[in-house]
Design goal:
alpha+beta, 22% helix, 20% strand, four-stranded antiparallel sheet, 13-stranded mixed sheet
Length: 650
């Protein structure tokens, strides 16, 4: 073979090894390694989860772990609100949609994923009054004759909004008819959910989880959780907020289930709508937290949903004035009403992580040591419907059309009036919603056991919609050439810890962090990779955002820790992004210049895409009208890794 051909062959082999190491990076989203293919690298046996030790291996099994994308927050017509929104699609339809099939939308058109199918999905219908709306709409049902039912099922969007408000008011006041909580009705719906999950679970190709949503909202402040079961072994009925709206009682119930062999975890969401309640630093009754409480919470809630349609809960701009990218899809209203949120501390995950390490430092326990996922919270039975250019919003007939969500001028006008209302307008909740998000996991295979194990150990990441893949490791002995090696992942597992883990101290050595992000081939190019650090200094929790990898070979300013702007833009007349700016992947080894061995800290990765059109701009483009002047025209899609916690002492 000629020298030039040998060099080309060597480069191709090296590239293939690196793609395999990232879990199939560069292949179609969710595509697994070919059956029987030899893994390129193996983590240390001690790092491998129980699923990796199984003798029965599914197609695509990879000891380096594959990236799988899914949606763990999905509502169908079995949810009381979705049914009011005229959604009649059921769990079977949701799973078909996740696998790429078209289904009908409540507004009368068909919908389908524009990207590839998902790898895993959980239908999480509200356990409160589950299935009751469907039965109440049946003239043969006793529920149909109740006075409360009259007017609940109109196709008129205004009547839908009124009916939903009546339901929410009845739920929050405890004045719902007791017939709506009939165990027989709930049992029929719960059985339907289990049977649909069983029909569509296809190990190695598509994973389903039996699940539901616990919908606590004291005084309208959001304390919702999605409850995900590891296997088909589940309780006879879900535990609901009608029984208790205190999540502590849910966790105790989950402990009792686990004692009977029912493995389960819960994932809180929309902390941004809790008005500071989700991550408050006392128990729900106002008494101080203690170690037993923190352990109960973390045993049952190892993850938090950082982004979804109803806004992103990473950080509020008022809490992070030095973070230029904090103002991303911020929703400042209660869930289900137009009441403004007034307390942001306690409602965003970065602040909770800071509170957690401070409590660990001062009190010896951390109740907020969670990893990250994203999901959609679709109420259209449409998991993964988080594509900006393929957006049909969230609540069925109420917001399925652009005019209903305020992205095109009212009354078929071609221009926007000078007094176009901003966030104080009744449409503001729909306008503040985003096309977000997805859950990413690193697991050996596409199965309930392997994916649940990844959720439990927090080797998870979140995206605002694109299928961006992130690897994040920390260790003390990473070789200088790690980012160029074909055995990168083997070395990272063997000599460090992955996202979601604790990093113990090493005398005399600062840790090194491996950051690796790869773009979604169907989305934008990557602009920068960042590490967000929180630490405790002199009894105060602090934070800093470091750019650690720049696109386009731009130099990183290590004084400001910022990349130069790469100049990427968007043609708003066509929504065509700049395709000559940005990178396919960003990869680096980074050492924290502010590291101090005695300071407790956490680190997580945030990867940003180049700017692209927001869903509201796509709506306007298709309508042949200018974008709404009160809304952001572009966004920077992103992904977040779960944190790594540096624990300087026991």
């Amino acid at each position: 073979m000629k020298p030039q051909r040998r060099r080309i062959a060597a480069r191709l082999l090296a590239a293939a090894a690196l793609m395999a190491a990232l879990g199939g990076a560069g292949a179609a989203p969710g595509q697994a390694q070919k059956p029987g293919a030899k893994p390129s690298a193996r983590p240390a046996p001690a790092k491998a989860p129980a699923a990796a030790k199984s003798a029965a291996r599914l197609p695509g099994y990879n000891t380096d772990r594959n990236a799988y994308f899914g949606d763990l927050h999905v509502h169908t017509g079995l949810s009381f609100d979705a049914y009011i929104f005229n959604v009649r699609a059921m769990p079977d339809d949701a799973y078909r949609f996740a696998k790429g099939d078209p289904i009908g939308h409540a507004a009368g058109f068909d919908i389908r994923l524009a990207g590839g199918p998902l790898d895993f999905t959980a239908v999480t219908d509200h356990s409160e009054y589950i299935g009751a709306m469907r039965e109440a709409n049946d003239p043969a049902s006793p529920l149909h004759k109740l006075p409360f039912v009259q007017g609940l099922f109109s196709p008129d969007p205004k009547q839908i909004t009124a009916a939903f408000g009546r339901m929410v008011a009845g739920f929050e006041s405890g004045k719902m008819p007791k017939e709506f909580s009939d165990p027989a009705i709930a049992g029929r719906a719960w059985t339907e959910i289990q049977q649909a999950a069983a029909r569509h679970n296809d190990p190695g190709r598509f994973t389903t989880f039996v699940a539901y949503e616990y919908t606590s909202a004291p005084d309208g402040r959001n304390l919702h959780r999605n409850v995900i079961f590891r296997t088909a072994k589940v309780p006879e009925l879900p535990y609901t907020a009608v029984v208790s709206n205190n999540p502590e009682n849910l966790w105790k119930t989950m402990d009792a289930w686990r004692a009977k062999g029912v493995d389960v975890l819960a994932i809180p969401h929309n902390s941004n709508g809790s008005d500071g309640l989700m991550f408050e630093t006392t128990k729900r009754d106002g008494t101080p937290m203690d170690k037993a409480y923190a352990e109960l919470r973390m045993r049952n809630e190892p993850l938090a949903e950082i982004t979804q349609i109803k806004g992103t809960s990473e950080v509020h701009p008022s809490l992070a004035p030095n973070d230029e990218w904090a103002n991303f899809e911020i929703m400042e209203r209660y869930i289900g009403s137009n009441k403004p949120v007034t307390k942001f501390h306690g409602g965003y995950v970065r602040e909770a992580l800071k509170d957690g390490i401070l409590m660990r430092e001062t009190k010896g326990f951390n109740p907020f040591k969670f990893g990250f996922i994203g999901s959609s919270d679709t109420h259209n039975a449409a998991p993964g419907s988080v594509e900006e250019r393929n957006y049909f919003s969230k609540v069925g007939r109420a917001d399925g059309l652009p005019a209903q969500r305020g992205s095109v001028p009212p009354g078929d006008a071609k221009t926007w009036p000078a007094d176009t209302p901003d966030s104080a307008h009744a449409l503001a909740p729909y306008q503040a919603w985003g096309a977000s998000g997805l859950a990413g996991v690193w697991a050996e295979e596409n199965s309930r056991e392997a994916i649940f194990a990844a959720l439990r150990r927090k080797e998870t990441f979140a995206t605002s919609g694109p299928r961006i893949r992130i690897r994040f490791f920390a260790g003390y002995d990473f070789p200088d050439d790690l980012t160029h090696r074909g055995d990168l992942v083997r070395e990272a597992y063997a000599k460090g810890v992955p996202m979601g883990s604790d990093l113990a101290p090493s005398k005399g050595k600062p840790p090194r962090f491996l950051v690796w992000g790869v773009r979604d081939p169907n989305s934008g190019y990557l602009q920068r990779a960042q590490i967000v650090k929180g630490w405790v200094e002199n009894g105060v929790a602090k934070e800093q955002v470091f750019d650690v990898a720049c696109s386009d070979k731009l130099p990183l300013n290590k004084t400001t820790w910022r990349c130069p702007d790469n100049g990427a833009g968007v043609n708003l007349a066509t929504c065509e992004p700049d395709r000559l700016k940005g990178d396919v992947e960003l990869r680096t080894l980074w050492t924290d210049p502010t590291f101090k061995p005695g300071q407790r800290a956490f680190y997580y990765v945030r990867v940003l895409e180049n700017p692209s059109c927001r869903w509201s701009t796509w709506d306007a483009l298709r309508n042949g009208t200018p974008p709404n002047p009160t809304l952001a025209k572009t966004i920077m899609e992103r992904a977040w890794s779960s944190p790594i916690w540096y624990e300087p002492k026991a």
